[in-house]
Every structure is written in structure tokens, then in C-alpha cells.
Specification:
The complex is a heterodimer. By secondary structure, chain A is mostly helical. Chain A is 73% helix and 3% strand. Chain A folds into two domains: 53 residues, no CATH class; 224 residues, MetI-like (MetI-like fold), CATH 1.10.3720.10. In chain B, a hairpin with an 8-residue loop joins strand 1 and strand 2. The two termini of chain B are 39 Å apart. Classes of the chains: A mainly alpha, B alpha/beta. At the A-B interface, helix 1, helix 7, helix 10, helix 12 and helix 13 of A face helix 1, helix 2, helix 4 and helix 18 of B. Chain A: Its main location: membrane.
């Protein structure tokens, strides 16, 4: 076999060349639009930046100190946690139950149809969906108040009173999002071998015990993935809040992502906005690490 | 579900990156003409994306191009929500358009950063234009743009004539409240049809005008905000009382109050005269625009932001041509055409006070007569922040009953912190 002067086979060199050529475009994109902005955001987080004058002044921990005294920032953190803590468990519970129900359907066509129906909101343009839901929530002419009045209940100020506003956003988010997790849970359920259920049935285990001792444990890897991805997604939820409530009423739905956007692009304070983004990043990193730590499973089948 | 962890951090820096992706047509805008004598010049012109503005500007640009065959002006227009970010990103990235038609409150940030070309003949504009319209375009005794519009959010009330029925136009503040109460329709102890309403930025404009009409002021001598005055307290209390005590409206709606007036859900709305042009969008003629009564009966003073106007980039390769075009599009005759086509209030005193112009635009009568009472809102630095602070604190007073003096103190503190920060840049 002929060898090159570097002592390597030509096909090995070609392979490396192929890998380099294939990866270069995506790496360039990654560096330009992901890595570089993250590095720049880290720098900006400890600076005051005046883009129009092109002046970047390192100001140490001034931005963080300012945020500690910023009532609106504290409110945004609280609202973000409130949203995530309410919406994620609801999402997981609803999607798991629906996935199990759809999985029980024996007719393959009907099963696919149901999965498709639940997935449609995921692929619908989010802004359009939010606008439609905004009309549903209208106090005078909205669908929900018409239904409430039909059953003899008082109409609700869905988007203009502080308490129902967050619930309204969560309802919309759940509708728009559940299809994605249903598909994940259904594939997870499909991968559990039937023999475990058959053995449990022979041992006299009822539905709940089969769910508790077979489905839940063997679905834990899927559940962990769904939980991690949903938490990350919901911490960054933006469009739903921006379009549906704009953070109101009385800032009761002002979440961190919205506050970062307003600070950066309405108040043009990129330094403080980057500090907020770093705080959000640190929160998400910590929670994801914690989730992975407690959700680690050692089994296989 | 598909977003990545880095999306938000990337978002923060989007303005900088976007600037790098901007159009670089300006740098290539100059070529030699066929005959070699006169330089061919292509100018980039940015503007707000709305048909009345586009139609007016296109005609004036065509006129200029006809008179200057070597000049070509390319228009790019942007929706309101994107425009201010686009302008800022363009200036940050040194890709600014040669000329831009911008909203007055965006100008001070650009002029302070030395990014705008000085407009000559300041004395002429000072004499011919309303000071309230010019305010934001001036800096340290120099002029950095020329407004085409007197941005008016005050002085008038949009009335739904079907709901108004036999009610006569109120001429005093007390009559306004009494008429509004009469027109309010209640359902379950809450107003179903609002008698008199206002929304968003109108809260700030109403609040500031009530301070000024009492003879008060809200700026200190060193240009910091001062809401710790009896006039400010009385003004905000009055605005809050409309929702809490008079109960002629509440904060339960998410729609613009002028929309509700056109649709018949609100009888009267405090809003600028630009609303007159929108009736056709709601397919209604059941409305009229009346004068807003004075709060004190003695003064009609109000605060106004500078409206839409023209600026030229200091770094434009064809600054002289761009400034020449600016002076062309903002001369009295062309401004008159632009105002008439775009349904905007004239910044030129001579146009606004011209009986012929008034006879052609009768719906603007209450507004045109009121322009002399306007003063510039002042160096608010960050417009959105200023307005949000006042609105948030007003909302706190209405919704949770926070004392007016306390919310005014909070608003003043937050705004002054912002002013200090902005001015230290």
C-alpha cells in the first residue's frame, strides 16, 4: 500500500478533509451566531455599553447591584418561576395522560389522526395562535366568557386582571405545546416491552399498579428529557407573553425574557439586558443540572 | 420547544449583529454620470411604513428627482415596531441611511452621539415652526433635523355620535365629567359602555397637561423630573379618580380606547387628532372630534413630543445633497402637501394658521387652534421608559389604591435614575 510522505494513507487524509469541509460551514454559523454572542453577552454583562457612540465601559458588578434593587426585575423572576412551576407539571401530566390514552387506541389510522390533531398547534405560527387566543379571552365578545355566561357564571377579565392573566397565558401555552410532548411520550411508551405488562397482569396487578410500577419507572428517561426540555423552553417563553399580555396587567405577567427584550430593545440598555440574560442562563443551567442529577437512571432493558 | 439556551443571549446582541448585516448601498451610491460632468447620486431614504406617509413622500421625492435629474432617492419603509430598532442598529453599524424620516423622540439619542448632520438656517426654522415641534431636533443651540409634524396627542376628544345622542359638547371640566357619567352604561356594577376613556400614552399626556394647566411644571432647573408638587398630585389624582371615583371607565380592556369609540363601546376618548383619519377603517361616520375642555378654565396648556421629521446622517457620503433634499421636503409648501396627504398636524405656524388649510380640514379645527398652547415635553431621554414609569404607577394607584404621592415619588425616582444614567453616557 502506497503511503504519503507524511506517513498516512491518502484515504485517511481524504476522510479528514471531507470532515473538515463538511463541518466548517456549520461551525462558522455556530461560532458567529451562538458562541460569539454568548461571549459578547458575558462581556456586556459587566459593562455599560453605548452602542451609538461605540463606547464600552467595564463597570464590574454595577449592573448586578442595580438589578438587586430593581423591583421590576425581581417581579420578573418571580413571575417566571410562577409560570414554570405551574405550567411544566401541568404540561407533563396532561401530555402523559393523553399519550397513554392515544396509545391505547387500536385502530392505527385513528391513532395517527389523534397524534396529528394534537401536533397541529405546534406547527402553527405562534403569533397567529396567540392572536386567536386573544380574541377568545376578550371580555365582551370572547369565546370563554360566552361559555361562562351560557352556564350561568360571571364573565372573567382574563387578560386585564392580575390573577386570571397568568392562568390565561398558561392555558394558551399548554394548548400550543402539548403536541410535542405527546409525541415524545408516545414513542417512550412504545419502547416499553409488552412482556412486563403481561407478567404484571398474570401477577394480578391492576391498572394503577402497572402504571405506578412499570410505566412510570420505564418511562423515566423520556420523562427526564421532556421535563428538561420543557423547563428550558418555558423559562425562555416570550412570544406568548409579548403578544397576549405585553407583561401586564400591572406587570403580573412580565417574565424575564420579556424584561430582557424591553431593556435591550426599548430602553437600549444592552449591558443590563446582558446581565439579566446571564442570570436567566445561570438559573436554567442550575435547574437542568439538578434535574439531570436527580433523574439519573442506571437500568436498561 | 425548539429554542436553545443561547437564544436569549444571542437576542441581546442582535442589534449589533443585525447592524453588520445591513445594506451597504450607501457606500456604493456614487457613480460617474454618462456625460461625466454631473455626479450621479443615489440617496437611501428610510421612513415609517404607512400608506399616507408613503404616498406623500413618493410624490415629493419624484418632484425633487425631476428638478435634480442626477439624484435618485431609494425609499425603504419599516413597520413601527421594527423601525426604531432598525434605525439604531443602522447608526451603530455605520450603515445609516443618508436621510430618514423619524419620530422626534428618537432624535436626541442620535444627535447627542454626534451622528446627525447639522441643518443650516436654524433661525428661519425657529421663526416659522412651533417650538413644541422643534424641541427634540435641537441640541446645544444647533438644529439636527426638521419636523414635518406637530405630534399632537392632546386638545381633543373623539366622540361616538350615536352614543352621544342629544348630549351637548362639554365646555368645562365639570361638564365633561357630568356628560361622561350620563353616557356611562353599567352592568353588574361595572361600566359596560364607558363614558370617557383614555389608554396607554394618553395617560401621560393627560397627566402632564393637567399639571401645566394649573400653572405647574414638572422639570427642575437642572432638567430633572419633579413630581413632588401639589399640581402633580392633583393632576394624577384627577386622572386616577376618573377610573376609581367617577367610574366612567375602568382598566378592564386591552383594546385602544379610540377603537372602542368607533365600535360603540366607549362614548368619548381623549386622543390626538390623527384619529380622524381612522374612521374609515372601522367603516363608520358616526363620530366627531371636539375640543377638550380646560381643566382649570383658564389654560389649555399641554406637553407634546416632537413628531415625524427628516434627519441626515453625518456620515453620509452625499451630506450636502441630502441636506438639500431635507430643506426641499420640509419647505413650507411641501410640508403643507405632506400634512394634507398624511393627515398630520402642521409643524409650520403659517400652514396651521392658514384659513384655507382650516377650511380644507374642518375636523382639525379644535387641534389647529390649540397648537399655540403646546410646549415640548422636555429632555425625557428614553421615551418608552418615561411613559412606562408614569403608566405603571398610575395603574398601581387605580388597581391597588396606592396613594398618589407615593406612586409619584416612585415614578420620579425611577425616571431621574434613568435620566442620570443616560446623561452620564
Amino acid at each position: 500500500m502506497a503511503r504519503s510522505k507524511y506517513g498516512k494513507r491518502p484515504d485517511h487524509r481524504n476522510k479528514k478533509m471531507f470532515i473538515a469541509v463538511s463541518l466548517t460551514p456549520i461551525m462558522l454559523l455556530f461560532i458567529t451566531f451562538t458562541l460569539l454572542p454568548i461571549v459578547m453577552a458575558c462581556v456586556l454583562a459587566f459593562s455599560s455599553y453605548d452602542g451609538l457612540r461605540g463606547v464600552l465601559n467595564f463597570n464590574g458588578f454595577d449592573n448586578i447591584r442595580g438589578l438587586l434593587n430593581d423591583e421590576l426585575f425581581r417581579m420578573a423572576i418571580w413571575n417566571t418561576f410562577r409560570f414554570v412551576l405551574l405550567a411544566v407539571p401541568l404540561n407533563i401530566a396532561i401530555t402523559l395522560l393523553l399519550a397513554m390514552a392515544i396509545n391505547k387506541v387500536r385502530n392505527a389510522k385513528l391513532k395517527h389522526l389523534l397524534r396529528t390533531i394534537f401536533f397541529v398547534p405546534v406547527i402553527a405560527p405562534l403569533v397567529g395562535s396567540v392572536l386567536v387566543w386573544q380574541t377568545f379571552f376578550n371580555y365582551d365578545h370572547g369565546l370563554f366568557n360566552m361559555l361562562l355566561e351560557f352556564v350561568g357564571l360571571q364573565p372573567v377579565h382574563w387578560l386585564t386582571e392580575t390573577k386570571p392573566a397568568m392562568i390565561s397565558v398558561i392555558l394558551m401555552v399548554l394548548w400550543a405545546d402539548i403536541g410535542y410532548n405527546i409525541v415524545l411520550f408516545m414513542s417512550g411508551l412504545d419502547s416499553i416491552p409488552d412482556m412486563f405488562y403481561e407478567a404484571a397482569k398474570l401477577d394480578g396487578a391492576g391498572r394503577f399498579r402497572r402504571f405506578r410500577h412499570i410505566t412510570l419507572p420505564l418511562l423515566s428517561r423520556t420523562t427526564l428529557f421532556v421535563a428538561v426540555m420543557t423547563v428550558l423552553s418555558y423559562f425562555q417563553a416570550f412570544t406568548q407573553f409579548k403578544v397576549l399580555t405585553g407583561g401586564g396587567p400591572s406587570n403580573s405577567t412580565r417574565v424575564l425574557s420579556l424584561q430582557i427584550y424591553d431593556t435591550a430593545f426599548k430602553y437600549f440598555d444592552l449591558g443590563v439586558a446582558s446581565t439579566m440574560a446571564m442570570v436567566l442562563f445561570a438559573i436554567m443551567l442550575s435547574i437542568t443540572w439538578f434535574q439531570l442529577k436527580i433523574g439519573k437512571s442506571q437500568w436498561e432493558y | 420547544m425548539k429554542k436553545t439556551v443561547s437564544a436569549l443571549t444571542a437576542l441581546v446582541l442582535f442589534a449589533g449583529v443585525a447592524a453588520g448585516c445591513g445594506n451597504n448601498a450607501t457606500n456604493q451610491s456614487s457613480t460617474s454620470s454618462a456625460n461625466g460632468n454631473e455626479e450621479q447620486v443615489t440617496l437611501k431614504y428610510w421612513m415609517y411604513q404607512t400608506d399616507p406617509f408613503i404616498n406623500a413622500n413618493k410624490k415629493l421625492i419624484a418632484d425633487y428627482e425631476k428638478a435634480h435629474p442626477n439624484v435618485k432617492i431609494d425609499i425603504e419603509s419599516f413597520p413601527w415596531d421594527d423601525y426604531v430598532q432598525k434605525i439604531q442598529a443602522a447608526y451603530i453599524g455605520n450603515e445609516a441611511p443618508d436621510i430618514a424620516q423619524v419620530f422626534g423622540s428618537w432624535v436626541p439619542a442620535l444627535s447627542k452621539a454626534g451622528l446627525l448632520a447639522e441643518v443650516p438656517n436654524k433661525d428661519k426654522y425657529d421663526a416659522e415652526l412651533y417650538p413644541a415641534a422643534l424641541g427634540a431636533y435641537e441640541l446645544n443651540g444647533k438644529l439636527y433635523g426638521v419636523p414635518g409634524e406637530f405630534n399632537l396627542e392632546n386638545g381633543g376628544i373623539l366622540v361616538n355620535t350615536k352614543l352621544y345622542k342629544e348630549a351637548s359638547d362639554p365646555t368645562t371640566w365639570d361638564q365633561l365629567m357630568a356628560t361622561a357619567k350620563k353616557l356611562t352604561v353599567y352592568e353588574n356594577d361595572a361600566p359596560k359602555i364607558f363614558g370617557f376613556d383614555f389608554y396607554g400614552d394618553s395617560v401621560t399626556f393627560l397627566f402632564l397637561s393637567l399639571i401645566l394647566q394649573q400653572g405647574g411644571k414638572y422639570w427642575t432647573d437642572d432638567n430633572m423630573v419633579d413630581f413632588n408638587t401639589p399640581e402633580a398630585a392633583k393632576a394624577l389624582q384627577t386622572v386616577v379618580d376618573i377610573k376609581t371615583k367617577e367610574k366612567i371607565a375602568d382598566l378592564s380592556r386591552t383594546t385602544y380606547s379610540y377603537e372602542d369609540t368607533f365600535k360603540g363601546d366607549t362614548a368619548m376618548t381623549f386622543v390626538g387628532p390623527w384619529v380622524n383619519a381612522l374612521g374609515k377603517d372601522y367603516q363608520t361616520t358616526d363620530f366627531k372630534y371636539i375640543k377638550m375642555p380646560s381643566f382649570t378654565g383658564t389654560s389649555d396648556a399641554f406637553a407634546a413630543e416632537s413628531g415625524w421629521g427628516e434627519i441626515v446622517s453625518e456620515s453620509s457620503e452625499h451630506k450636502d445633497v441630502a441636506l438639500d433634499f431635507l430643506q426641499f421636503i420640509t419647505n413650507e409648501e411641501n410640508s403643507r402637501y405632506w400634512n394634507a396627504t398624511s393627515s398630520t398636524i402642521p409643524a409650520y405656524k403659517a400652514v396651521a394658521e392658514d384659513p384655507e388649510y382650516l377650511s380644507q380640514n374642518p375636523a382639525l379645527k379644535p387641534s389647529l387652534e390649540d397648537l399655540k398652547n403646546g410646549t415640548w415635553i422636555g429632555p425625557i431621554e428614553n421615551r418608552d421608559f418615561f411613559f412606562k414609569q408614569i403608566y405603571d404607577n398610575y395603574e398601581k394607584a387605580v388597581k391597588v389604591g396606592a396613594p398618589v404621592d407615593l406612586v409619584l415619588k416612585d415614578a420620579q425616582q425611577a425616571i431621574n435614575d434613568m435620566l442620570t444614567k443616560e446623561r452620564s453616557k
